[in-house]
Amino acid sequence: LFSGGQDSTTCLAWALQRYAKVETIGFDYGQRHAVELSVRPTILQHLRQLSPEWDARLGQDHVLDLSWLGQLSNTALTSEVEIRMQENGLPNTFVPGRNLLFMTVASTLAYRRGLDVLVGGMCETDFSGYPDCRDDTMKSLQVTLNLGMASRFSIETPLMWIDKSQTWQLAQDLGGAPLVDLIREHSHTCYLGQRDILHPWGYGCGHCPACALRERGYQQFIATQSMPGQSC
Ligand code: ZN
Q1: Cα 210 to ligand 1 centre (Å)
Q2: How many percent of the chain have pLDDT more than 70?
Q3: Ligand 1 centroid vs 215 CA: distance in angstroms?
Q4: Is the model's pLDDT at 128 over the cut of 80?
Q5: Residue 140: what pLDDT?
Q6: Of 18, 68, 95, 125, which shows the fewest CB atoms inside 10 Å?
Q7: How far away, in angstroms, is 191 Cα from ligand 1 center?
Q8: What is the model's pLDDT at position 227?
Q9: In angstroms, what is the span from residue 141 Cα to ligand 1's centroid?
């Protein structure tokens, strides 16, 4: 599952390192800003240039139109509403069950394409209240998909137990400084879709929850890099 954000770009590099054939899927569901979708082809092209091995493994990219999802939800990600915490403790950016839907659609495509590992950037560590990012949710979905399709899919979530700083570190481990730079410059996280100013951690408004999380993680990552006496 490749959205064009920091997490899914890191997961894509992780998959390219491990699997002989990797295909990508993105969803157009009427996001307020199509920025994430628009950076995807650039990221794919740069990943190819980073490693001939990755280039050979990277297969088809699929973008599916799920614009009808907007009809089911009226949240800050798909309409012009301010991002805030709701009374139930969930941010109003939550599109109910979004990741269940994305993973299910991806599994249908994977089935048809003969692929058997589904990789997603879900994460419990920076848990922002999305119950469909939980490890238990993904484990349960894996069982359900395999029962429902008489298949043997495995759902891999390499970021599940690491924080944003460790996600930067994972990128560093997978592709060194060139991959970190690629993610910094080309991946998109900002909820407001801003790409005017390039901060040390990437483009974004610098104020929304997604930018704040990305900036804090990057600063922590940089701090660990410059710590004296630290080795890998
Ligand atoms: Zn932002």
Answers
A1: 6
A2: 85
A3: 10
A4: no
A5: 98
A6: 68
A7: 5
A8: 63
A9: 31
